[in-house]
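Continued from yesterday's entry.
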Amino acid sequence: MTAIIRMSELYAPTLKETPSDAAIPSHQLLLRAGFMRKSATGLYSYLPLGWRVIHKIEKICREEMDGIGSQEIMLPILQPAELWHESGRWDDYGPELMRMEDRHGVGMCLGPTHEEIITDLVRNELKSYKQLPLTLYQIQAKFRDERRPRFGLMRSREFIMKDAYSFHTDAESLHKTYQDMYDAYGRYCERVGLEYRPVAADSGQIGGSVTVEFHALAESG
């Protein structure tokens, strides 16, 4: 049974004035309506209304991912530098990678993405090609030390992302999963009411030969 809370009890502090650093409508409305609050540059706390919205978005995302055979997992946010050195991305990723050392002097980073750690997980567990294809996904926080965090949640240093990783025996299997994922993203955008366009994009440090981003159309770009 869903608990009903009175508006008089709801923690949703609103703002009469628009914060000076809120440049686009979505950022302004989220702050003024009491959905979130700025904690520091590029960092936000989600208040009850905002967190409820995120839960609804995640539910739709999970339904679409589960519907194409993906399985949800949870990977650590804090990742060993050793794996990033092995992939060659420790230096290549650039200053956006948040690096640190633990008390023992072991290099670590806060994950901006999880290719290294998911590959290490799967390569140590899969024993036969009969276990493929396999697609694993997660929904969790990511960290990127943006030079100029701006536009609210559109360009922040900490953000929630759904990332999925698939493993295959051949290119044909990979292409099928790619198409399944492409179709799922389209359905997801439609279900949340976005006017969107699939756009060819640069793969950047993640790599790959084909990259498509699903862009929501907005006057702010």
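--- second protein ---
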Amino acid sequence: MNKRIIILGISAIFLLWSCGAGNSRNGADDSHEHHDHATEIGHDHEAELHGHESGLHAGHNHGTETGHNHGTEGAGHSDEIVISPEKAAAVGIATETVSPGRFREVIHTSGEILPAAGDESTIVATTDGTISFAENYTEGMAVGAGQEIFAILSGNLQDGNRIEKARIAYITAKEEYERASRLTDSRIVSQKEFVTIKENYENARLAYEALRPSKSGNGVAVQSPFKGYIKNLAVKQGDFVTTGTPLATISQNRHLVLEADLSQKDYARRYSITGANFTTAYSDRTYSTADLGGKLLSIGKSQNEGEYYMPVSFSILNTADLIPGAFAEIWLLCSEKDNVITLPLSAITEEQGLYFVYLRLDEQCYKKQEVTLGANDGQRTEILKGLAAGDNVVVKGAYNVKLASASNAIPAHTHNH
């Protein structure tokens, strides 16, 4: 009985202890869960606060960044080129304000510069003999009127020295003429005989004077007929020539003819042609028939068989060292058009088949502008698109502006429009 009581008591104590331990574990679990929940809430709250802070920070940065970028964009343009006024003056940059005006229609062709009739003379041998140059003459050298160029020597020929023989004949005829003149009054020499003697004297004189003695006195002198230059030499030292052989061509080079080739497709516009501009292969200069005292001489009325062009000829004065025989690029000037925007050819630059000019925006800022070209007259070109009246365009030194643009070393520029 007592044993049973003791066993029941121990069992009750064990049961009570088990319930307390369970409650303690439950409380600990509950406490842990509450702690985890609180921690999670705290972290979430912190994350939210941090996110809010980050949002504020991001918003600030965005505003600053946007404001800065916008400010920079508003202050400068990436396509602007900055050149200081001092540097622009040093490299010769000059501008022109665009203004519509009158412009001539043109026909672009080619042609040749020819000597004018009477402006050249070919000198020939006046007797048989061998050539001796009076000086070391070459083509292109200037000569004066009456200047000796050749001596024709005939002393080693079978007929002997021609000039000496002519001199003797002239002296003999002169003496005979003078004697007959004194005897005519006394009727010793008849009038008929006197006429014959006088004729022989005149012929001998002309023959001798035609054979002007050279400076050395050993031959016949060949002289330049006028002041000019030696265009070509047809002989060389020691050549044998006969009377009438061409020796050289002397050109005055004062009057020339510009002969342009007019295509059949442009023939309908022939009556509107009034002048021409042209350039040569040996010079960058553009010449104008108006500036050279030019005058339209003729327009071909027909063409040779097998040829596609007809000649248009202008007479011009050679005041610009033009060379006869040179080929020329020619712009025939026709009727004029009104209200046309044009620029000097020096203002145009070309890149991969596109054409550009440079606008001056202010005293140190320039901008590249694409343009569409129309006809040109050899000096100025028509601008069909890309410019408006009032634009300030670089007309001298455009390639210097292009080089400054390509250097990519231009500092930032704050230019407001």
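The first strand starts at residue 80 and ends at 82. The chain has five helices and 23 strands. Will compare against the first tomorrow.
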